[in-house]
Design a protein that fits this description.
single chain, about 325 residues, Ubiquitin-like (UB roll), 4 domains, six-stranded mixed beta barrel, four-stranded mixed beta sheet, 4 helices, 20 strands, about 45% strand, rod-shaped
C-alpha cells in the first residue's frame, strides 16, 4: 500500500515537470515567432534631407509617420517625394526638399514665395503671375533661383499715338539796295506750317520711358518770313553825306590833256573822268575818290588792271602834283 503511494507521488511530480517544460517551450516558441514577425514586418527606408542620406527602420505605415518617427520636421512648403500619405515600402528612398523664400517684385508689390529648387519661370507660375509679350523679367526665365533672391517683373506697354505739331517758318534775309546799311524792313511776315506724326510711346510700369517718331506728314507748309536789309553805306565829305554800295582800296595815278580829247568809251575828257578795270568797277559807275572828289568810270587803259584807277586832270601840273597815291574809291549808288 505504501509502495503504491510512493509511485503515484513520483508520477505526479514528473507530470508537473513535463507541464512546466511544455509551457516554457510554448512561451519560447511564441517569443521566437513574435520576434520573427517583428523582424519580418520592419521596413528599412532611406531618407535624403539637408544634403545627407540616413537609413531608418520603421513599422509605420505612411511616409509622414516614418519621418515623424525619425525626428525629421517637414514644414508647410517643403516638398516630399514620394508624398507624405504614400505607403512605406522596404528599401524606398524618401527625398525631403527644403523650401526657401524668393521675393517677387511686380505690379507695385513685393510678394514672398516659398519654393524648392526651380527656375524663375517656376516661381512666377507658383505666384500665379502671367507675363505680357513685351514684359521683362530679371533674372531670365530659365535662370535658377537661390534663397532670398529677388525676381523683378517690369511691365512694358507700347502705344501708337497721333499728334499735330507746328513747323516753324524760317527767316530769309535779302539785300536791298534802297536801304542804308543797318536798316531793315519786313517784306513778308510768314506763318508756321502744320504737320501730323505717328509716335510710338513706350511705358514701363506705367511710366513713359521713350518716344519714337514712326511717320510724319506735312499738312500745311510754312511760309518763310522775309526781311530786307540795307546795303547802302554813307560817308561824310565836305558836309555832304555820300551814299555808297562798295569801297575798294586802289592805286591811283593821273593823266592829262596829252592823252587825247576822248575816252575809250567815246566821252569827252574832263575833270572827273576815271579810267578803271571794268572787271573791278563797272563802266558808268559813279565814284567818289578821297583827295580827288566825284568821278565817273568812263575810260579804260592797258595798264589799268585790278585795283587801279587813272584820274583825269585838266593840266599836266596837276597830274604831277597828284603823282601816285593809294586811296579809297567809293562806288556810289
Amino acid at each position: 500500500m505504501t509502495k503504491l503511494s510512493d509511485e503515484q507521488s513520483r508520477g505526479q511530480r514528473f507530470s508537473r515537470k513535463k507541464l512546466v517544460l511544455g509551457i516554457v517551450i510554448v512561451i519560447t516558441l511564441i517569443g521566437i515567432l513574435s520576434w520573427g514577425a517583428v523582424v519580418y514586418a520592419t521596413d528599412e527606408i532611406r531618407i535624403s534631407v539637408d544634403g545627407k542620406e540616413v537609413h531608418h527602420k520603421t513599422l509605420k505605415g505612411t511616409v509622414e509617420e516614418a519621418l515623424t518617427e525619425a525626428g525629421i520636421e517637414v514644414k508647410a512648403h517643403d516638398q516630399v517625394t514620394p508624398g507624405l500619405k504614400s505607403k512605406v515600402k522596404d528599401g524606398m528612398l524618401v527625398v525631403v526638399e527644403r523650401a526657401f523664400p524668393v521675393h517677387v517684385v511686380a505690379d507695385g508689390d513685393t510678394t514672398t514665395i516659398y519654393t524648392t529648387a526651380t527656375n524663375v519661370r517656376g516661381v512666377l507660375k507658383k505666384a500665379s503671375l502671367s507675363l505680357g509679350e513685351l514684359d521683362r523679367v530679371s533674372p531670365e526665365l530659365d535662370a535658377e533661383v537661390e534663397p532670398g533672391c529677388e525676381i523683378r517683373v517690369t511691365r512694358v506697354r507700347e502705344e501708337l499715338i497721333t499728334e499735330k505739331y507746328d513747323i516753324p517758318a524760317k527767316t530769309e534775309r535779302k539785300p536791298d539796295s534802297t536801304l542804308n546799311k543797318g536798316q531793315q524792313k519786313v517784306v513778308r511776315q510768314g506763318s508756321p506750317g502744320e504737320g501730323v506724326r505717328q509716335v510710338k510711346v513706350v511705358y514701363e510700369d506705367g511710366k513713359e520711358v521713350s518716344r519714337k517718331t514712326i511717320k510724319e506728314q506735312v499738312v500745311r507748309s510754312p511760309v518763310n518770313r522775309v526781311i530786307a536789309y540795307g546795303t547802302i553805306s554813307t560817308i561824310s565829305r565836305g558836309g555832304d553825306v555820300i551814299r555808297y554800295r562798295k569801297v575798294i582800296q586802289a592805286r591811283a595815278t593821273a593823266y592829262g590833256p596829252s592823252a587825247g580829247k576822248y575816252t575809250a568809251t567815246g566821252h569827252r575828257v574832263a575833270r572827273g573822268v576815271v579810267a578803271v578795270d571794268p572787271r573791278v568797277i563797272p563802266l558808268g559807275s559813279r565814284l567818289y575818290i578821297d583827295g580827288y572828289g566825284y568821278g565817273r568810270a568812263l575810260d579804260v587803259g592797258g595798264a589799268i588792271k585790278g585795283n587801279r584807277v587813272d584820274l583825269y586832270f585838266p593840266s599836266d601840273a596837276e597830274c604831277h602834283r597828284w603823282g601816285v597815291r593809294y586811296v579809297k574809291v567809293y562806288i556810289l549808288q
